[in-house]
Specification:
single chain; about 90 residues; mainly alpha; rod-shaped
Amino acid sequence: MSDKPEALRLAESLLLCWGDSRLDQAATELRRLHAANIDCIDHFNAIKAERDELLAVLKELQESAAYWSEYEVPIGIVDRINAAIAKAEA
């Protein structure tokens, strides 16, 4: 399996098919797709970092939930915390 992103492999395939007459267009498209993929990876990594931070807060709340008085928290909040943690870890 190649380490190259799918978009980059596709652009290289197009470059081979188009030949020399459209080389500049293919090279431009290759660079655009490669840059777009890098942007997507950066965005994904930022979202994952935020997810990890939120998950850590939820786990801290989950650990302390056993000590909460049922009169001081919204009904069902512990179940919602547990469901959110399970969904995030899936």
